[in-house]
Specification:
The protein is α+β, with helices and mostly antiparallel strands. The protein contains 15 helices and 4 strands. The longest helix has 37 residues. The two termini are 42 Å apart.
């Protein structure tokens, strides 16, 4: 009986041969495998894009904000968000806003603003405006967008997200608050990383008395009610501290409370890895303990640590927002999303100016984006899983 072999079907145009794909996977590094798996997670890619956008806004907040966040206008308090228009009388025009007609209700005495179609103010890009010091290094007054500085605006400014009770531009304040709120998350997670890896690594690698002491400390901290502890420690901070001192104290405070989860993850990984063959081989070669920990053991599950830290950043942002909202965290003149939401504590004010709740939308979007990105990193941390 003759044996026949059927020829393999050639790959279609534009497709990669299966043998090439298999060889590419076999020689790929752990980070390459992680990236290939991560980019297949659509929500994670969207979340990462939003997170990157937020951090770009925070880095260049002075340039992107149309106005100085501390400047107020008494004649334009509680101005509602002004929409951008592209058509006037059926004709396409460059982006512009209408002027505002300020009136007072004779019965309620509330000031209202109505658009005046007879007044057209074009929006320009790269315009001169309020002076600022970019990154604290050099003075300039160039802003990304604003009204034409040569036009007679009678003091009117473009307020895309409205103004607060003092006439301060909400968009500028939210952009400046992005830097503070997101940087607290990064700095706090960095301190968490140092404490979690150091104490968790000592506990899992050496064991013995060190393990018992560290684990009892972790259990004690985890048994404390988080919110009352935050409130008590924040209230204990001196009231005469500067904004910088209070900023760093809040970062350290949040990190010292939240490092326990990462430490337990690191301890569990060290307990599982310390008996592996590559660790035993390093010991037989008389490698130093620190080299074994940082050169061999830690890189073997570093991707899991990155995923855990990414998921921890939203918790830090929410903690700072909650404390600042309650008046126990950052305080004016420091601007953060939590500080901005203090204006929303008065229900009557919110009823009259609901746009003061817009910072809460930025908090929700950033938290969801970090969670999507963290879920994608967590799934991609094990590239061989299905």
């Amino acid at each position: 009986m003759a044996i026949t072999f059927e020829p393999t079907k050639p790959a279609a145009a534009g497709e990669i041969e299966p043998e090439v794909v298999e060889e590419k996977v076999l020689i790929a590094s752990q980070w390459q495998l992680m990236w290939w798996r991560f980019r297949k997670h659509q929500l994670a890619m969207v979340g990462t894009s939003v997170v990157v956008l937020f951090y770009v806004v925070g880095i260049f907040c002075e340039f992107l904000a149309p106005y100085d966040p501390g400047i107020f206008e008494r004649n334009f308090t509680f101005v509602p968000p002004q929409p951008i228009h592209f058509f006037h009388e059926g004709k396409l025009r460059a982006p512009f806003i209408y002027g505002l007609e300020r009136t007072r209700d004779p019965e309620t005495y509330l000031i209202t603003y109505e658009p005046d179609p007879e007044q057209i103010y074009p929006i320009r890009f790269w315009v001169e405006g309020d002076p600022y010091k970019m990154w604290g290094l050099w003075n300039t007054n160039i802003h990304f967008f604003g009204l034409d500085p040569e036009a007679d605006t009678d003091g009117l400014r473009v307020h895309l997200l409205g103004t607060d009770r003092l006439g301060r531009d909400m968009l500028s304040r939210i952009i400046y608050g992005t830097r503070i709120s997101l940087s607290i998350g990064l700095l706090g997670v960095f301190i968490q990383f140092v404490l979690g890896v150091l104490l968790g690594g000592i506990s899992g690698y050496f064991g013995g008395v060190a393990d018992v002491v560290i684990q009892r400390l972790i259990e004690f901290l985890m048994s404390l009610p988080t919110i009352p502890l935050w409130m008590g420690l924040s209230a204990a901070l001196p009231r005469d501290w500067t904004s910088v001192q209070r900023y760093f104290s809040i970062v350290i405070l949040l990190a010292l409370i939240n490092w326990t989860g990462l430490a337990r993850v690191v301890r569990g990984r060290f307990l599982a890895v310390r008996q592996e063959d590559f660790v035993m081989a390093a010991r037989l070669q008389n490698a130093r303990e620190m080299r074994i920990i940082f050169r061999h053991m830690l890189p073997s599950f570093f991707s899991h640590i990155i995923a855990s830290l990414t998921l921890a950043i939203p918790g830090m942002i929410l903690a700072e927002t909650s404390l600042s909202f309650l008046g126990l965290g950052l305080r004016p003149p420091t601007i953060s999303w939590g500080v901005l939401l203090q204006e929303a504590q008065n229900l009557q004010t919110v009823a009259l100016a609901p746009w003061l709740m817009i910072p809460a939308l930025f908090v929700v979007v950033s938290i969801l984006s970090f969670n999507f990105m963290g879920d994608g990193l967590r799934d991609a941390a094990d590239p061989y899983s299905r």
